[in-house]
Amino acid sequence: MPPFTPEDIDSVRASFPALSGDYIFFNTAAGSQVLGSVADRVRDYLITPNLVNDGYKAAADFINASPDEIVFGSSATQLLHNLSHALSFSPEDEILLCPLDHESNIAPWLALAARQNLKIRWWHPQLPPEDQPGCVNPKLDLTNPPISPKTRLICLTHTTNILGTIHDIKSLSAKIRLLNPQTLLCVDGVAHAPHRRIDVKDLGVDFYVFSWYKLFGPRISQLYAGPCARAQLQSMGHFFNPAESLDDKIGLAGGWCQELIYGIPAVVEYLTPRWEGVVDQEERLQSVLLGLLAGLDGKITIYGEWCGDAKVRVPTVSFRVRGWKSKDFVEAIERETNGRVKLSWGTYYSVRLAKEVLGLGDDGVVRVSLAHYNTGKLLR
């Protein structure tokens, strides 16, 4: 599909019942609006007997995986904790973590290291000189990951949920395979999945997690594990049950909310022909927003890439306003708009990024997180 026309945008917005009201949603990164077709399928499953659940295949196809390579759970956090209990390493092996990550891709691995006497190493970003006034843009050197012969697991976000920066996971994966083929790569794709097509085989990852409720779908999350990585997992299931698929191994016989899984094909059907338009629309939106912020005469500090290039960022834009606490600024916007404009403030479970890297306090940042169903006129 080519870039969206105004008529396309009208059609897109009509697909989301919540957008028919007066609210303006600038908080997509906390959870997107849900497609009406998803709600319809969830309802159909609950009231129609003997439906065949095609959600597993659709969810696997969506990321170019097979159904035995995925498992569902209540959240990315829960799935990564389950995964951490199924992995076993040798004492003194190393796990490489990054403070740019959401805590869901840090805490499980710290706990695993404590249980198995592993070493934690941190991959710290650099704060380069400002390439644009009023912009703080921490960056990782993905060409030179600090891997040692004892590194067994690297955990990294695909896109940070504060900075909006996209990491080149495909290139990183290739580099890891050259440096230490035994090293596993676990990627948090929660902040990335609503904005870009995911192909886990092309990326070369071992584990990949994301949440459908941030992807216009039901309140459920999904984890992928590649064949070689899955073979290394110990089963957490009952000894008498199968232990072949990822769901067998770490699904804990959850039978996860079948009606929610049944809603997933509606997301796949909606997004598959629209990805090109989604990326183009979001690039336009973030370019408009960043341009507006940059034009405020030094009153704004932007955290992350300052340009709107879709190759380097998604439309999750964080900033602080000189002379304002983030909380007070957001509350002022809510008062001025009678609660119609929904944006947010805080550290978004990325406390290490906010405090250790950016030097901020609990007040964090103001975050405007957009999706393709937003329009430029709403930003003005």
Structure characterization notes:
- This is Cysteine desulfurase.
- Residues 57-375 form the Aminotransferase class V domain.
- Helices cover 34% and strands 15% of the residues.
- It is globular and about 60 Å long.
- It has 14 helices and 14 strands.
- The model has no long low-confidence stretch (mean pLDDT 95).
- The strands form 3 sheets. It has a 7-stranded mixed β-sheet, sandwiched between helices. A 5-stranded mixed β-sheet has the order 5-10-11-14-13, covered by helices on one side. Strands 1-12 form a two-stranded parallel ribbon.
- The protein has helices spanning 6-14, 36-47, 55-62, 76-86, 107-116, 169-179, 200-203, 227-231, 246-250, 258-271, 275-294, 326-336, 351-357, 376-379; strands at residues 24-25, 70-73, 94-97, 119-122, 135-136, 151-157, 184-188, 207-211, 221-225, 300-303, 316-321, 341-342, 344-346, 365-369.
- With 380 residues, the chain is of the alpha/beta class.
- The two termini are 27 Å apart.
